[in-house]
Specification:
Layout lengths: L1 E7 L4 E6 L5 E7 L14 E8 L14 E3 L9 E2 L9 H11 L8 E6 L2 E8 L3 E9 L1 H10 L20 H27 L5 E5 L3 H7 L10 H12 L4
Helix pairs in contact: 1-5, 2-3
Length: about 240
């Protein structure tokens, strides 16, 4: 028997099928422009664990398989210090859950999840998740500059940034990418002042590598933290 872990983000959907020993059997990444007919789920899936930030389930799932959503009525392995728990996204709950297995009770941590949005997720000592910050992601910033102006193009990110930008395109790249870079560095500096004993820094999400390279933090990229969080629940409540 297999359990399916599903991380449905705003841009793409990640799937992992695991067996009873938590071994990954199958992995896939689905994008809306791909035909659902190309996604063939493994046999013997008996339960789906779902984390989604979407309003609707508009992505493929196995037919007639029970779906388990992460909810704030669960027994979370962390303390939640958040004023509006009903608005906390599934993805951030799963990130906090994954952190429980990655840090000690005495440590603090910051997870920077770089996807459609960039979320900053802070765990204080004692496994206290206290929120953080949410800002536009890299591609959203490019899109907004084009959508809310008359003449600016909608560009794709580049690997090399020139500053000062000597063309409109170069100026856009500098504004977006350097803006993100110094936003991240500013958050890290703020965290150092708040937790002088130090914090573990982790990057996850589709743009994690890009942000880690920008900030010289490449050793701190942990792909699929949301799926790690889902696997916690799959391990404890496998087929109930």
């Amino acid at each position: 028997m297999l359990q399916l872990l599903v991380d449905a983000g705003n841009t793409s959907v990640k799937y992992q099928a695991i067996d009873g020993s938590q071994k990954m059997i199958w992995k896939e990444n689905w994008l809306p422009e791909l035909s659902t007919s190309k996604l063939i789920f493994p046999e013997n899936i008996t339960k789906v664990w779902l984390s989604t930030v979407r309003k609707e389930i508009d992505f493929p799932l196995p037919y007639k398989i029970p779906i388990q959503r992460i909810s704030l009525q669960g027994n979370y392995p962390f303390v939640l210090d958040y004023l509006t728990p009903g608005t906390l996204g599934d993805d951030r709950i799963c990130i906090a859950t994954a952190l429980k297995a990655m840090i000690s009770m005495e440590e603090s941590a910051l997870v920077i999840a770089a996807g459609t949005c960039i979320t900053y997720n802070v765990m204080k000592p004692g496994y206290v998740f206290c929120g953080g910050a949410i800002s536009p992601g890299i591609r959203m910033r490019y899109q907004a500059l084009s959508a809310f102006t008359g003449n600016l193009p909608n560009l794709a990110p580049v690997s090399e940034i020139e500053f000062p930008g000597k063309s409109t395109d170069d100026s856009l790249h500098a504004g977006v990418l350097l803006g993100v870079k110094y936003e991240v560095l500013g958050i890290l500096n703020h965290l150092e002042n708040s937790f002088p004993q130090g914090s573990k820094i982790m990057f996850t999400g589709g743009d994690a590598d890009r942000l880690a390279v920008m900030t010289k933090s490449l050793n701190f990229v942990y792909p699929d933290l949301v799926l790690r969080g889902l696997s916690y629940w799959a391990e404890r409540y496998p087929f109930s």
